[in-house]
């Protein structure tokens, strides 16, 4: 018989203390909610404070970090695009949350959650060190537990829950190349001292795209980040998409709280939360619904675009027509700034919704096709008909 933790009406439970879970916990704390509990199965990994690392976030993730109030701190630090980066970023989140919202946000490390009951809003938490288990009954469960989410595994048992997972024929393996005295290629070979050993021993990770819908059930549960939509890593957007989810959900909660406040008090609510806000089932249900509608089409769009990007990178880079189109695209970006923007630019350096980037990307493709279809692939790309390009951009891309 499991021990049952007291039912506490203020509790928000977040399964998974990764980037999405931590960022959301902080924003909920900032909103004035209290008793926010984040359960993370891994231990807290200490990070040497003197370490310098490079930033690998795009403007999408940055927007969320600004809302959290952590961007200034992160801006001066650089993060390599490796697993280590995630630990460093998570550690920043933990210490920031402890410093600013220590009363409201509690982290439970080495605590795995399982046996989620979506209707009862309960789960079992297990302390990895002691093996002790306890049943937790909560107000709402936020599944931020990554691509292989246990919360989602429970949700897919609900009637009419859509779910798909598809694996690429390629897999992923990390090989470490230590920093050399400079970055030119002749230096690389001697640095690959462990190449063969690493290749043999490092784990091979499958590359999976996971889609599911809906992302919530009443006010009981919601999925965020990779738990809601795992994508393959070829655009470097998974973390950015996860942080976009967090900001969207935070904004939806804010909007629904304001509406609720107006309804009950007849007064206009200020655009920030007041401290000491209480959990309201109605608000959470509406916010979850709005958030999933806002984010689903964009998350599908990025999932599709990443696969396309992989095909381009692996199959088409040597293709003469593809190379020519890329050169013409660069020329158009240079000659028609702000009017012709490549899909890559929209995804990686803007906060344009992914679904809009996909739409524009399709139009860009047709423009490039029109401009290159009658030309010899060997001819100079700068000979492209710029008047025709101007006309096509006006006709197809001007809103
Ligand atoms: C090879 C590779 C390279 C990538 N490169 C980039 C990049 O350059 N830029 C980018 O934007 N994205 C990148 N990503 C994607 C990015 O890492 C993820 O999209 C992002 O980490 C998702 O955040 P999350 O919080 O949703 O999930 P996660 O970061 O996976 O966090 C989930 C957390 O939940 C915990 N957890 C899981 N199950 C339980 C449980 N039952 N109980 C308690 N805790 C649990 C896990 O320990 C984990 O800490 C890359 C991914 C891969 C695989």
* Strand order, largest beta sheet: 4-3-2-8-12-11
CATH architecture of the largest domain: 3-Layer(bba) Sandwich
Structural class: alpha/beta
**Average of pLDDT:** 87
Helix content: 40-55%
Q: What secondary-structure arrangement, pairings included, does this model have?
A:
Elements: E1 3-4, E2 12-15, H1 19-31, E3 36-39, H2 59-68, H3 71-75, H4 83-101, E4 105-108, E5 111-117, E6 122-127, E7 133-137, E8 140-143, H5 150-155, E9 162-173, H6 188-191, H7 195-201, E10 204-213, E11 216-217, E12 221-223, E13 229-230, H8 238-265, H9 281-316, H10 320-335, H11 343-349, H12 354-372, H13 386-397
Parallel strand pairs: 1-7, 2-3, 2-8, 3-4, 8-12
Antiparallel strand pairs: 5-6, 6-7, 9-10, 10-13, 11-12
Task: Give a verbal description of the structure.
This protein has 399 residues and is of the alpha/beta class. The chain has two domains: 3-296, 3-Layer(bba) Sandwich (FAD/NAD(P)-binding domain); 317-397, no CATH class. The protein contains 13 helices and 13 strands. The strands form three sheets. A six-stranded mixed beta sheet has the order 4-3-2-8-12-11. The chain has a four-stranded mixed beta sheet with strand order 1-7-6-5. Helix 1 packs parallel to helix 4, helix 2 (59-68) crosses helix 8 (238-265) and helix 11 packs antiparallel against helix 12. It starts with a strand and ends with a helix. Residues 49-55 and 268-274 have low confidence and may be disordered. Bound molecules: flavin-adenine dinucleotide (FAD). Flavin-adenine dinucleotide binds at residues 15-21, 39-42, 56, 81, 86, 112-114, 144-146, 150, 172, 225-227, 233, 236-240, 242.
